[in-house]
Structure formats: C-alpha cells, structure tokens
Specification:
InterPro entries: Bact_2-comp_sensor_kinase (IPR050640), dCache_1 (IPR033479), HAMP_dom (IPR003660), HATPase_C_sf (IPR036890), HATPase_dom (IPR003594), Sig_transdc_His_kin_internal (IPR010559)
Helix content: 40-55%
Radius of gyration: 62 Å
Protein name: HAMP domain-containing protein
Largest sheet: 5 strands, antiparallel
Keywords: Cell membrane, Kinase, Membrane, Phosphoprotein, Transferase, Transmembrane, Transmembrane helix
Oligomer: single chain
Shape: rod-shaped
Subcellular location: Cell membrane
Organism: Paenibacillus phytorum
C-alpha cells in the first residue's frame, strides 16, 4: 500500500538513521581529514626543519675545529712574518704536526686543510694522499678566495670546492689589532659524501624525497645522483624562491606537493616533496572505512528498524484486515497478540465493538426488512395510481368520434380507430413495473397518431430521428405518448398548421440514455417554465405529501417524471427547455442499457 503505516514508519526510521549516520560520518571524516592534512603539512615542515637543523649543526661543528688553529701561537707567528719571508723548517713542521694533525684525526671527513697568508706563508696538510695534486690550480683557487668579498672572519661554505666532491669551508684570518684587517685565509676541503650520508637517512614516505639547492640554483643534493651538481630548471627555481616556507606545486610535477625553507647559516634551500596520493592515502582509507562502517551500520539499523516497525504495524494490520472483513459484512474478531500492551487493549475494544455492532445490525436489518416490504407495497400502489391518472377525456372524445362515424356511415375509419384504441387501452392499463423497448413506445405513438388523424381531420407525421441502434433500448412504459399528446394540447392551441413539426430523437453518453420530444409551437413563457421546472424538481416531495400540481398541463408531465424516478431513481426524469414563440423541448433522461440502475428502496 502506497500510504501504509509500515511504509511511513520505515521511511521515518530510514530518514532518522541515514541523517544521523551522514551527519556523524561526514563531520567525523571532514574533521579527521583536515587533521590528517594539517599533520602531514606539519610533518613535512618538521622534517625540513630537522634536516636544515642537522645540516647546520654538522657544518657548525667544523667552525669549532677552526678555533684550535686560530688560537695557535705558531699560526699567529707565521702570519705576522714580513712579506716574502719563509718560516723555518721547525715552524712549518710544528704547524703541520701540532696544529693540522689533531683536526684531521678528529675529523676524518676533512680531506685537506690549508692556511695561506697574505705575506706569502703557506701551509697545507692532507688526511689522505691525493695524487696528482695540481698546485698551480690550487694557487689560482686560493687567489680567487682572497678576492672574494663575501668571505670574511666568519666561516663561509663554498659548495664548489677545490677538490671534486668536496665542500670548501673557508674563513679569513683577522689581524690581532683589527677585526677588519685580514692577514690570510684558512680553509678545509670537506667530503660532501658525509652530508649525503646524513641526508639519505631522512625518509619522506615511500615516494617522498628532498633536494638541496644553493642560492644560484645549483643542486647540491638529490636522490638521483645524475642531477647532483646540475642547475635546477629556471622555472622550478623561480617557483621555489617565490614559495618559501609554504606548500606549493612545481610545473611538470603533477600529483606532488613541495615545501621549501632556506637556511640562514648555509644559505642553502631545502625542498621536500611528497606524493599527493600517498599523502591522501590515509584520508582515502579513512573515507573507505567510514563508508564501510556507515553502510554496515545502516543495514543493521534498517533491519532493526524493520523489525521494530513490524512489531508496531503487525497488530494494526490485523485490525485493518478485521475491519475490511467487517466492512464486507463478515463480522470478524481479531486475535490478541499476547503482548498485553496498548495494542491488545485496542484489539479487545475493537472485538467488543464488533460484537455490539453485529447485534445492532441484526436488529436494524430485521426492522428494515419489514419497512421495505411495506414501502414496496406502497410504491406499487402509488405507481398504479399515477399510471391511471392519464387524462380520460381523450378516451371519451375518441368514443364520441366512433359513435359519430358509426351513425353517419359505415367506413373503414371506424375500424382503424377502434383497432388503434384497442391497442392503446391494452398497452396503457398494464400496471407492472416492467421496462419496455423504445420500439414499443414508438408503436404506441403510431396508434395514437392514427386516432389523431381522424380527430384533427388531417394527416400529421411525427419526425422520428431515433437511430435503429437504440430501438431495443429500454425505457418506462407510457412516457412518449403523454408528451406528444401534451404538444397537441398546449403547443398547437389554435390547431395544426402545415409548418408545425414534432421531432423525436435519442442519443447516449457514457452512462445515460436521452430521448427528446421537440416541437415548434407557441412555447412557454419564462415564469411559467421556471415554475414547471421547480415542480419537476420537487415532484417527489409533492407526491409524498399527496399534493396536486396546479400548473395547467403539468399533470401528464409530472406523471411521466414521477414514474421514471420510481423506476430508475431520483437523478433521472424530465427536463424542459422552451422559448416563447419558438417551441419547447422535453428531454427524458434514463440510464443506458449497459448501466441500468434500479431505484434504491
């Protein structure tokens, strides 16, 4: 059932459960996904900061290694020598053994240390023997360092070292009396592989990685060894420079996010990258888990809602079925559910009501049968009385005509009149409620017109336009002839003229059958027509009150109208339309043969 209670209960439960699950699931997923995204951004930032911090600490540790060299009196003494003078063997030996060796031993990742004085002093030492050693190239490299204004008393990192695969950690040595006056430079050649070992230990998921570029876009570290030492693409480098300290995307790198941060100590920029798919995988897993749990919970909740709804609706359906059977006339008691709740109380009340109704209906039915029998007898008597009210003057006048013709001459006219009158009398005096066909009514009018020919002393033909398909349809006995007689009496009060016509026609709609009698006589004025139609509408009340109509000519019409209503019901009968000086049309409305109705008793 479209609007059944179980459907409504189930729909309400579904709405409540689905709304709750969607609200909780969407809210939880939204909050969790946002938290995960924030955690990933924080994790990415934290990893970059840690890598930068560890790198800076690693490089700063060598700044402390230079302190032991800077405070060495031998170094200071060598730097204070006059220009172009050479220190003795003892001084050079002390510088190599007593100053450089401890630094090289404690920091094996340093391949080469050197001090170059502006006075021409030069001292170098190696952790390993490098062959061949290009001293001329070294001298040119040192001269470039001397002229580099970016190098000062602080430790400076040069990513392009004198030795391949090394970083140069270099600083200028200041004069004792002035920190702005430099007397030489000191440098370390540091294996960059040590930093690579540090950077390789940083994990950014399965597909995440990071790389380091200097301030000129040169790649110092990359997971792909083939890219180390090469220049970063110009567009990529511009994007990195423009998006420091925030999440961004690189052109040509779909499905990945990047985060960059620049070290204030080394001047290097570390760029970390993670896959969006890998980053969103926990969110996807969370979404999938939320959907699965939500669907499972929804199915379970719907099952429980269905069981709960059935526990409520099942007794209601029992009551509904009992009421339906009772409505059909089968007094049905509904069994109790055994739950002893409000539904059982309702069923008990219903059973009590059915028992009392059954008793009352039996009493009413017995009384109605008695009243029905009495009413049927009264209606039959009333019908017979109405049918016998047909104006007897016509019969009297006809008999007078017969007498006149019989006295004057012996003719066939008498035979025709007597034969027609005999048929009409036999047809009229029957008082049963039997319905006859349209053909029988038309035959009755034929005999009536045969008599009227002699009475009016002229021929008059009625225009019958009824289709042959309707001749076997049923109608009430003696309904057309009174209407035709009423036309001769009232529509043509000054006699019949050649222009006068009477038309009888019929048609059907979906449920009813209509027969009309139409004339072009004098018509009825509006006031009289209104009174006549009112009397037709109130004819049953007048009949029950046994009042007689006073409108002239309405006795025959009311007689026909009342007999039709007695056979078919009060919604059927006559209706009249008329225009003064134009004519009158009387319509008989009856049920069609395919949908005959019997008057309710």
């Amino acid at each position: 059932m479209k609007n059944s209670l179980v459907r409504k209960v189930y729909i309400y439960f579904v709405i409540i459960i689905a709304l709750t699950l969607v609200t909780v699931g969407v809210t939880g997923y939204w909050r969790s996904s946002n938290e995960l995204e924030n955690q990933y951004e924080g994790l990415l930032t934290q990893i970059v900061d840690n890598v930068l911090h560890e790198t800076d600490l690693f490089l700063k540790s060598y700044e402390r290694a230079t302190v032991s060299i800077l405070i060495s009196p031998v170094v200071k003494e060598a730097l204070d020598l006059p220009s172009n003078s050479t220190p003795g063997f003892y001084t050079s030996e002390i510088a190599m053994k007593g100053v450089f060796q401890p630094v090289l031993i404690n920091n094996p990742e340093i391949s080469m240390t050197y001090i170059i004085g502006y006075n021409g002093f030069q001292a170098t030492d190696f952790n390993i023997h490098i062959v061949p050693f290009n001293y001329k190239g070294f001298e040119e490299y040192v001269e470039q360092m001397k002229e580099d204004d970016d190098i000062n008393g602080k430790l400076t990192i040069q990513d392009s070292g004198f030795l391949d695969g090394h970083l140069t950690l270099i600083r200028k040595l200041a004069d004792r009396t002035s920190s702005k006056s430099f007397k030489g430079i000191m440098g370390f050649e540091l294996k960059i592989g040590e930093l690579n070992t540090l950077w390789k230990g940083i994990k950014l998921g399965q597909s995440g990685y990071f790389f380091i570029v200097n301030d000129r876009g040169k790649i110092l570290y990359h997971p792909d060894p083939n890219r180390i030492g090469k220049q970063l693409d110009g567009m990529h480098f511009s994007t990195v420079e423009a998006n420091k300290d925030q999440i961004f995307e690189l052109p040509g790198e779909p499905g990945r996010v990047f985060f960059s941060r620049k070290s204030d100590y080394s001047g290097w920029t570390l760029v970390a990258s993670m896959s969006v798919a890998e980053q969103s995988k926990p969110i996807s897993d969370l979404r999938q888990t939320t959907l699965l749990v939500g669907i499972f919970t929804l199915i379970l909740a719907l099952f429980l809602a269905y069981r709960f709804g059935q526990s409520i609706v099942r007794p209601v359906r029992l009551l509904e079925n009992g009421m339906r059977q009772t409505a059909k006339g089968h007094w049905t008691r509904v069994p109790l559910t055994g739950s002893r709740d409000e539904m059982d109380q309702l069923i008990t009340s219903y059973n009590t009501m059915v028992t009392r109704l059954e008793e009352l209906v039996e009493r009413v039915y017995e009384t109605e049968l008695r009243n029905q029998d009495n009413l049927l007898k009264r209606q039959l008597a009333e019908f017979q009385s109405l049918q016998l009210q047909i104006n007897p003057h016509f019969l009297y006048n006809t008999l007078e005509i017969i007498i006149c013709y019989a006295v004057i001459q012996k003719s066939s006219e008498i035979k025709d009149i007597v034969r027609s009158l005999s048929y009409m009398l036999r047809y009229s005096i029957r008082t049963d409620l039997e319905e006859i066909t349209v053909a029988n009514e038309l035959k009755h009018i034929l005999y009536f017109m045969s008599i009227m020919k002699y009475r009016n002393q002229r021929e008059f033909e009625i225009d019958v336009r009824i289709s042959t398909d309707y001749l076997l349809d049923s109608m009430v006995r003696l309904t057309l002839q009174p209407l035709v007689e009423n036309v001769f009496k009232h529509a043509f009060p000054y006699g019949i003229e050649d222009t006068h016509t009477i038309i009888i026609d019929a048609w059907k709609d979906e449920a009813d059958f209509y027969v009309i009698v139409e004339d072009n006589g004098c018509g009825i004025d509006a006031e009289s027509l209104l009174q006549l139609n009112i009397r037709l509408m109130n004819s049953r009340e007048e009949r029950l009150l046994e009042t007689q109509p006073t409108f002239e000519g309405s006795i025959g019409l009311l007689n026909v109208h009342n007999r039709i209503q007695m056979v078919f019901g009060e919604q059927y009968g006559l209706s009249i339309q008329s225009d003064l000086g134009v004519g009158t049309k009387v319509t008989i409305r009856m049920p069609s043969s395919s949908a005959k109705k019997v008057m309710p008793v």
